Amino acid sequence: MASTGVKLIDIAVNFTDGMFRGIYHGKQCHAADIPAVLARAWASGVDRIIVTGGSLKESREALEIAETDGELSCLDAGCFDYVLLGAFKVFVVMCLRSCDVLEFEESGDPEGHFQALLALAKEGIAKGKVVAVGECGLDYDRLHFCPSDVQKKYFKKQFELAEAVKLPMFLHMRAAGEDFCEIVSENLYRFPGGVTHSFTGTAEDRDKLLSFEKMFIGINGCSLKTSENLEVLQGIPAERMMIETDSPYCDIKNTHAGIKFVKSVWPSKKKEKYEPDSTVKGRNEPCLVRQVLEVVAGCKGIADIEGLSKTLYHNTCRLFFPQDLDASADAQLESASEGSEGFDWLVMETWTLSTLPASEKVWEISPEVMV
Ligand SMILES: [Zn+2]
């Protein structure tokens, strides 16, 4: 599948999941294949990937995976091409997801656990790899894993982490709109901006999230299952949206309402008949974020899919890679003085936080973040 001019960032990839090591329900079905998955992503117009860390252990693993993205030949001797294509394109968010926050208490030393997360985040920031704190939030569909009072207690605590490292937040809200929005509004001053990913909420939830000026909404296959989901999606302005796969989960299935807008398909094989050049049936992966883009475009009646991809890309850089927006503006100034032409669209952008009128400056990014 050719990239056809779109430029995409998949903001949610669970590369620490066993399926990317070929393990399904505890059974090894094929070899680990992140290099092949990345190669398909880069060939499909995906420009960067953000890997989620859901526990301290997962966050550590996610950072290790992100660090290999420039050295993929170490993982697979046959993937020399990926070495160049994949350099410095995989980033990480790290924290404890709602159903994992029991870790704080089970560790017997919640403060020590917090300090371990903070130290890991700082290490990842120094390596240029950690771009947000998350995923964290409230998931009331998983109360059997962690009761709501414990989820709330540690969700509040996680704003401390964002405040300490001055990074945006990567959030998850499921069946918990009221409590989630209450806690976010109490802590707005502590983080520079955020995205509520894997959004499956109601129109009311959507409007509450959009009322926070510095909040974006992340859409994946789980956000596109029913006609009600698509109606809610229509009310999210493209300027407040990001797209993701949440792979290996949340793929767009044939039974989903959004499927009618999907145009791009990749060859796929069952996991038992795995081939490195095909996707695996039922396992989502980053190249398929293109399908999410197509459903968003179709559902919102947007014919200019490249234009939509630019808007979503820009939103994502604005939150997670603000230094690149500044760099692109600088490059444009230089090119103007040299009278040269032919820069790609990102270089043509002029928007930076510092040149925005105050009314549009929805948050301030601290200079320390611009590493
Ligand atoms: Zn999530």
Automatic annotation (TrEMBL):
Entry annotated with the keyword Hydrolase: yes
Record PANTHER family: DEOXYRIBONUCLEASE TATDN1 (PTHR10060:SF15), TATD FAMILY DEOXYRIBONUCLEASE (PTHR10060)
Family: Belongs to the metallo-dependent hydrolases superfamily. TatD-type hydrolase family.
Any one annotated GO CC term: cytosol
This protein's UniProt keywords: Hydrolase, Metal-binding, Nuclease
InterPro entries hit by this protein: DNase_TatD-rel_CS, Metal_Hydrolase, TatD-like, TatD-type_Hydrolase
Full protein name: TatD related DNase
Pfam families xref list: TatD_DNase (PF01026)
